[in-house]
Write a structure and sequence with these properties.
One of its GO terms (molecular function) is sequence-specific DNA binding. By secondary structure, the protein is an alpha+beta fold. The strands form 3 sheets. The protein has a 6-stranded antiparallel β-sheet with strand order 2-8-4-7-9-10, with helices on one face. A two-stranded parallel sheet has the order 1-3. Strands 5-6 form a two-stranded antiparallel ribbon.
């Protein structure tokens, strides 16, 4: 199914609550494949499973679940689908000022405020934090009223204290309410999502953006902090990582399934992104699973 239109997601808090909490079993999160954005900050916990994540212009692979904090208006795709094999997914969404405009500005909240500002570039948390937060997320999902709110603040506090995290977009990739830019980037990203297994001509993508090729290349680098070729290769390598993790395909088959039509170029690009070749990656993954 093609998704060429940008998707603004309107979010309403749960009844009797100042924020939204959703719990999805297995692959119930049907928005997974839709590229969308919203002003609300979003905390996503995926219990188990592996898959691809696209947050802003960063495309990466996760395994054994995921814990991500996504800032206001940072476009992203959902984490799970029918192939993720996760146990469940908990999604929390809250407006930056859901507790009042001045709440985060009190001294006690300074670290959490810094965390929420950093989240404008997308944050993925490491394994230790993921384990620690799992129980808190489960308890929060069963709590009600004020107790639920206090548990959310407690989770944000723990996330603001840890150093076990990675920022996903080095550049400040988030929407500055430039609707024209947003529409254009959504169109380009969706085109890559739908066609990464085929050859993508730069002229065609520049045409989609109604730009000349040189203008498009400058524009894309300015918005995403990477070249269009880097972006497409990153998408393809992430798909290859997913296939290496989940499918019993030969590395040659994975190369072509991921949109590369040259095996040596695939190996070279894979090593640039992962610091190892596909055979090494699969062998190390097999040792970990054993």
């Amino acid at each position: 199914m093609k998704h060429h239109n940008p998707s603004f997601e309107a979010i309403n808090p749960n009844i009797g609550s100042s924020f939204t909490l959703l719990k999805f079993r297995k692959n119930e999160n049907i928005k997974s494949h839709v590229w969308h954005y919203h002003p609300e900050i979003e905390l996503i916990f995926v219990c188990g499973g592996s898959g691809k994540r696209q947050i802003g212009s960063n495309i990466s692979h996760f395994s054994d679940g995921d814990l991500i904090l996504i800032g206001s208006n940072l476009p992203h795709c959902g984490m799970t689908n029918e192939n993720t094999n996760n146990d469940y997914e908990i999604v929390i969404q809250f407006s930056p000022d859901f507790l009042g405009e001045s709440f985060w500005n009190v001294p006690e909240m300074s670290r959490i405020l810094a965390l929420l500002n950093t989240a404008k570039s997308g944050i993925v948390f490491g394994d230790e934090v993921k384990k620690s937060i799992r129980e808190k997320m489960e308890i929060l999902s069963e709590a009600s009223s004020l107790d639920r709110l206090l548990k959310l603040i407690d989770i944000l506090k723990e996330l603001s204290d840890t150093k076990d995290f990675q920022i996903l977009n080095a550049g400040k990739y988030y929407l500055q309410t430039q609707k024209e830019d947003n529409d254009r980037i959504n169109l380009i990203f969706n085109h890559v999502k739908d066609n990464f297994k085929e050859q993508i001509a730069l002229e065609d993508v520049a045409g989609l953006a109604t730009m000349t090729v040189p203008s498009f290349c400058r524009y894309f680098k300015k918005i995403t902090n990477k070249t269009f070729t880097q972006f497409v290769n990153e998408y393809r390598i992430t798909h290859a990582l997913k296939l290496l993790t989940e499918q019993p395909l030969s590395i040659n088959e994975i190369c072509f399934e991921s949109g590369f039509n040259n095996f040596s170029y695939f190996n070279k690009t894979f090593k640039e992104y992962t610091k190892k070749n596909p055979s090494q990656y699969r062998k190390e993954l097999s040792n970990v699973l054993d």
